[in-house]
Task: structure prediction
Amino acid sequence: MPKKKTAKKAAKKITVKKTTRKVAKKAAKKATKKTVTRKPITSDSIKITGANQHNLKNISLNIPHGELTVITGPSGSGKSSLAFHTLYAEGQRRYVETFSPYVRQFLDRMDKPVVDRIENIPPAIAVEQKNNIRTSRSTVGTLTELNDYLKVIFPRLARAYDPNDGTEIKPDSPSSIIADLLEKFPDENALITFNIPAPTNSTIEEIFLMLDQQGYLRILIDGETHRTDEPPTIKKFKSKEIQIIQDRVKLNTQSKARLHEAIEAALSNGKGKICALLNHKSQITNLKYSTLWINPNTGFTLAKPTAAHFSFNSPIGACEDCRGFGKVIGIDLHKAIQDPSLSLKRGAVKPFQTARGEDCQSDLLKAAKAKGISITTPWHQLTKKEQNWVIQGEHGNADELWRSGEWYGVRGFFDWMESKAYKMHVRVFLANYRAYTDCSSCDGTRLKPYAQCFFLNVPDASGFCPKTPSASSQSITNSFSEGKTLPELWQLPLTELKDFFDQIPNEQPNSSTKHALTEIKARLHYLNEVGLGYLTLDRPARTLSGGEIERVNLTTCLGAALTNTLFVLDEPTVGLHSQDIHRLIKVMHDLRDKGNTVVVVEHEEAVMHSADNLIDIGPKAGEAGGNIVFQGDPTNPSNKTDLTKSITLPYLTGEKSIPIPAKRRKSKTYLSITGAHQHNIENLSVKLPIGIITCLTGLSGSGKSTLANDIIYNNILDQLHQPTETPPAFIKKLTGIEHIGAVERIDQSPLTRTPRSTPAVYSGAFDAIRELFATHQSAQLKPGYFSFNSGTGRCERCMGNGFEKVEMQFLSDLYITCPECDGSRYGASALKYTYLEKNIAETLQLTVTEALAQFEPQDFDIQKVKNQKNKIQRALQPLLDVGLGYLRLGQPLNTLSGGESQRIKLCQLLAKAKTKAPKLNLIKGNDKAAIKSQISNIKSPIQKSTLLILDEPTTGLHFTDIEKLLEVFQTLADSGHTLLIIEHNLDVIRAADHIIDIGPGAGTDGGKITFTGTPEQLAKQDSPTGTALAIPVGSDRRADPTGNWQLVTGNSISLYGARENNLKNIDLTIPRDQLVCITGLSGSGKSTIAFDIIFAEGQRRFLDSMSPYARQFAGQLEKPDIDKIEGLPPTVAIEQRVSRGGGKSTVGTVTEIYHFLRLLYAKLGTQHCPVSGLPVVSQTLEAIHKQISDELKSNKSSLLLVPLVIAKKGYHTDIVAAAQKHGIAEVIADGKLIKTTEFTPLARYKEHDIYAVHPSAGISHTEAALKLGSGRCAIAVVTKNKKFTITNYSTSRFSPVTGKSFDEPDPHHFSFNSPRGWCKECRGYGTIVDVPPARKKRRKANEFNSEAEAEIHAELSHGKGKDKDATRITCPECEGARLREESRHILIEGKPISEITAHPVSDAIHLLEKWKFTGRDKLIARDILPEIIQRLTFLKKVGLDYLSIDRSADTLSGGESQRIRLAAQLGSNLTGVLYILDEPTIGLHPRDNVQLLDTLDTLKSKGNSLLIVEHDDETMARADTLINIGPGAGKEGGEVTQCAGDFQSPSSTQANKKLRRLKISSTLTPPTPPRRKIPKISEKDAWLKITNCTQNNLKEIDVRIPLGRLTVITGVSGCGKSSLMRGTIANIPTKGASKAAVAKFKSPAGDRKGAQAHGNFKSSSGFNLLKHTYEVDQTPIGKTSRSCPATYVKVFDDIRKLMAQVPEARMRGYTASRFSFNNAEGQCPDCKGNGRIKLEMDFLPTTYVPCEACDEMRYNPATLEIRYNGLNIGEILRLSIGEAAEFFKNHTKLGRTLTLLNDTGLGYLQLGQPSPTLSGGEAQRIKLVAELTKGRANIRNMGPTNKNLYLIEEPTIGLHAQDVNKLIEVLHRLTDEGHTVIIVEHHTTIMAQADYLIDIGPEAGEKGGTIVAQGKPEQVAKSKTSRTAPFINQALDELKA
Result:
């Protein structure tokens, strides 16, 4: 035994002298300087200016990009305010702004921080200590994506085995069959045979005749050979199959070709199965082979393995019984083993120890002996295999096993008991064993039994799977010592899993497998590096602690390989042993080295030493903090001033340290636990000293929390007869409980979630304070008067909260100071009363320190006052003792940090501990009993010790806070409490009296006590904790230097093995921080790379950091088919959308400007009376009485209502339940009367109105209804159709002129998409349809059955399908404002919202910048008004300042729509983002195109990357890197044909750009046919003419267009091109127009004047010479998979007719309808003609899987048997359009249409390709062909009356130059046939090819609308005023070149 040392000496031993610390520090510095040279990746920094969030004091600072920055400081100093509420909030908020409004409503609402400016901030991801996961579907494997990679490698590397006989199952091929036969039976004769089903309805003769006719000579029947031309005399076959001999072959190399042919034919005829019969050594050998996943010997079949088979989140792989959860409610067989220390003989199986189970006990012992399993070994010492045998029994049916004398298992016993469950006592017995337990079908593995047949093995000398399993499923698992099924891999600790995969080489033939293995190994390495090696992949994510979930997410971030991202980490070292901290630091450095900025809130010394940049916030907590006291290199403070300002640096430099107690306590009594079993703890015994501080430490995952919580805490509660949340762990014996009076767990969880609890209330001081205020006043007041929670003195407006909640819809709700009490919580009457010159509100503003001084007892105080003051002193002093003297008495507790909350919880215990002896009272007389009692109390102040269990109490605590906390611990221990502290912090360990170290490792390697004793003794131990403890205090504990660090991935995005869609396994490197253009033929794979791979993966990786709840609404972005992507930053996609929106979509709604305006007007607008124009005023109660009285008298059936919910989403069950408690029996919910007892949850995401029906409708109850409704009530009148008409009344919103009450303004009141806001006359369109009087008479007054039906009709009447004989006119009711009357009279600064939206963008900015608000309004407008102005400003920057906010979206040009989307997306002002744009130049004039590219260059200069899918020459010329995908489209594309080099020129001069443009287009310029002659203007019947056209911005222009020519209308975006073509020309009827359309245009012969009908032009002529007008716009062609190119262009009808004419189809009676996949007669019955099957799973998105019944052919087998020229209907639909054009070339009609599709560049599309998968350009060209085929007649029959007018809008959208050439050929061909073609286009090549050109301008909007030039392209090119002329000149020059 070592000699005893004094505590003083011990303290000296564990402390180091100051000089020693300095020497150690200098040595560490020296070593660091030699080995580490930090080189910042970039000089840029995140610049924060004027941060005032929470307690921050207007701080400004720079945080370097690409570095590890640690923010530290005292608890409550403002660290999280800076890191999370400022930095992360802004980075995440800006990125989330790029998502759609629908998605954003489900994402976490991040408040906009209170900061002047933040610049250069990248998208931010927070890695916090929060575990919000509640679903058991999420596991460690899914969180880390390891499950995703495992399911990729299992189909490729795992081998399948038959569970019946252990035979390996793998598909054969002709080559493998030949190799096997030649190897095993060389030179022998073999019969190659196959089986067919024996026909049941045919005779033997018929069967033999049929086989003979098909050329088969011999067959085998019952082992005998028969010739087919000689039928046997047997009557029927004995077997169900006939074995047909394909060939007799000699097995040698000479016959190899013949053998191969025979095997192929047999496999084809035998449906993948054949036999080889040999007479080997005079014995018949029958060898079975199959190309299927089948065991030919047993018939056991497996489906071809796919990744989905190995995922429990896929319906294909998930267990059908538990749906992939792994758990069901059933018998928990493990509950049968209640005492693991018992052996089988001594009764380990508890249910077998009763009378009903004694026979089973006998059976078990007998079977165990026979099996060789020990019956005397304790259960916990049996192997897992032996335990499983006892529980599960032998393989097979339990009853049969029992009869045969084999062991049926504990499961068999319970199955038998379940069969007797009809007996009451059996049900009671079984109830004791029921629990949420493993699913019996999958044994908790979550997967179907299918997955259990696949084994992954480590390699040996002979490769994978060195030996074949034996013939039982039980032995399959055991036969491979290394082989594991997927569930077995999930159950391995990560340390063992890493060792398993380290043995598998990365060198794999398949690149996907190689990538998956690399990722698995890397992620397992990271997980082990952060100290999580004890976890298993099947561990439910919801069971992880905050620290564990943070470290798991940290490794996920590393695995995601994002770059240019800001990661904000919240104390990642929580719960981490000091041994693992350095490994965690290395992980954070890895994250930094990938090009990310890492900001860590941390107090761990080693992390601070390893930081590149340290920010110390302080100097103290609360209001005394919020300043930066130090920023810089933590290892090298610049001067001594830093050391004096910062309270952190002295601890880092060794100048200060937390003192060690001078004396260790010793205990004489112990709490002893024997034989504890729980998780990884087995048969553990431990002694816990009572009355001292014990620190429980050990590696992360070693079992500390299990011992403290499950074993000690739960068992003590159980002994004290108190409830436990979870059942206590099993223990054999517990002694010493008599010394424990109570047990408490004290953690850092919030004290409360409401602001009503404060330090004064929680400590109990507020009772005494209120008592003092009440007794001090002359008035007779009670203490309750001064309570802000319930007293009558509180403010009635805010109900004592001090603030009001302002709901901000899609913004974070605002909490603003109550204007009535100014935040004091009290009414004016209560504030009149004072005590010690302070009223109650001022008293609550005192800090704890100030309050202790304020309420110091004085000599002159009366005894009652002294008593109350002493009570205050006793309550508040502990707060000061634990360092919380800065807290204010009235500060809400929900604003405190975790450390502050924990210390407040300790205060109550500390208050009791401070009273070491009770106060002695004066005893009168000789009361011996009282004296004896008092003496007894003095001797024994605490009879029993309270056990306090604290789990890592130093979490979030600074050095100074830890020092104060340790003082509290010492005080508690001195008072007799027992403290059990789970902790890794070395200062806490050093301060403890006793140490219990658990280990030696984590997980299964832990669970044992490796040391008990003092810290001094532990420091001598060779253990992880002992080693860390032996390091001298104050030493530099930084992580090991790793040398120079720099960006690992390089400044590029690297793609490896991309195979998505048509990509050919390509590798590609895309530079970052550049403008990169991807081009290529349409359908070549450009969008696949940009959007399906890069965008999908970039956003998926970022979304993985968000909550699972949010991710389900952001869209399920699937992982693309690619091996690896590196260097990928967060992505933002700006896709091509050709939809213009409905008639209610405006510039304001598209940009969301109107959403913010609605919110601003709802919150700050002033309601005015529509009649008088005066503002509404408050209404008296008497006035409302009178109005309701009049209503009730006129209609006695009226109901008095109280509004509960108005226009709010949610279930609202809680609100109705609360109303029911107030006596409400009925409610009107969304217009329906419902009893509160029958109320069911409403639709969660739909807005609802709920009114409570007041029990009595009398006038006397009006006041009660108003009080219940907070000043609002309503009257409901039942109409004739049994609906309710509701009239609202309010005490605060009343017109004194009309007496009308007004509703509280709501954003919905300004929405013209909602019936709450729209004008009832026009339903929010601003226009109405003016139909002829005759039509009006035919319509009924109430022709719509519902609101929805009426809205659909309105949409149709205003949309594309509107009546041709109807006209839209401005609504006379709202005059185009779209809103209801009340909403139009809500004003701000005297202006309604409609006036603001009528302004152009530039004017609106000027107007809104003048608006100034004060007080409460200023706070509300703080976030709204700047957002509106910012979005308007960006519209101005992209050249759209002329647009008005209320401009209808369907009147915008394509260019305007595209730039609006750009303005909405690019306004986020992010840095480091990859923007992916899909043809942004669509619809842009070349001049506007240059402006757009300048904008994109500016975006690039901010540190962003741009990836643009584009065909535009100017964009390609301006690109830094050009990537060409090709060489063809569809199957012929998908390869990188050119990248960067040929086009990447360092010079940016105009000459170089021109040279590059010529390089790009030189080989792609189309041939120019001779221009068609333009007729003279005076020539008759040669022109289309329109005079005085005024549509939209057109300025009375006269237009002439030559007939039979190709005319192009061009001009800058927004100049009026579409107004001319779509708004005017398209509406003028031609000869073939309907009678109704022609009737509108009254005209003499030859002319049709439409001025009266339209008012947009004066006259038109020449249109009577045309047959029809065909308009081709940009709308999509279909939204479901049932629409495809073949159906849209109508060729499918002709194909179906062809199929019906096939002789076999005619013989069967099939008609054309049979070949429609929409017809039940011919479609596949499983998928209903979709080709895919919809599968739904709980809590997962709907999944579509290929239909296996038809193999995605859509049709049933009978239909697919019909073939036309060798192809069935399903195969025809799979043809590409190019293949189909060749296939049907002899069919005139089909061939012409298909050739036309092919000629427009669509030859790569499949005929049956679903329409939703088509791009915008593809859809438009299909529509173009459909319109062209309508009007194209046979050229021989073409005459002057059959010529048509084609109006085509921007047909080059999405077209490559080569495809443009094809399109030009089609257009010229169409024109050559005599048709007139008018095109709106900006493509200069199309302009140069035109016969006639009309240039409109000169500018956009009001500055446009005139014809600048018209004529031949050469003539327009000479115009000096045309904005188009310079670009036409350039195009003409290129044509000449």
About this structure: The radius of gyration is 42 Å.
